[in-house]
Specification:
The protein is globular. The protein is an all-beta fold and 88 residues long. It contains no helices and 13 strands. The chain has a five-stranded parallel β-sheet with strand order 1-4-7-10-13, with no helix packed on it.
Length: 88
């Protein structure tokens, strides 16, 4: 596991082995990262979010926040991403 010293990992986050987390990344308390996930610099993962194996998130991406739909009124949401995905 390679976590940059400036990354912020909340208590409760589940992080598998062989995960790379870049500088200033933020991982929330309800986030789950499977093996070989790579997070670039300044990535923010929040909410109930899970990333499958071999997923790569490039710098400055934000995943797991509240939906941007005008009909959203605060109900619980979840983001589940499978294996072998890339987010730029």
């Amino acid at each position: 596991m390679a976590i940059h010293p400036t990354a912020v990992i909340a208590p409760g986050a589940q992080i598998a082995e062989n995960v790379e987390i870049g500088p200033y990344a933020v991982v929330g308390p309800h986030v789950s990262l499977e093996s070989h996930v790579r997070l670039g610099a300044h990535v923010v993962l929040s909410g109930h979010t899970s990333l499958g194996e071999h997923t790569e998130v490039f710098p400055h991406a934000v995943l797991g926040g509240a939906p941007q739909d005008k009909k959203y009124s605060g109900e619980p949401t979840r983001l589940q991403i499978g294996s072998h995905n890339v987010f730029r």
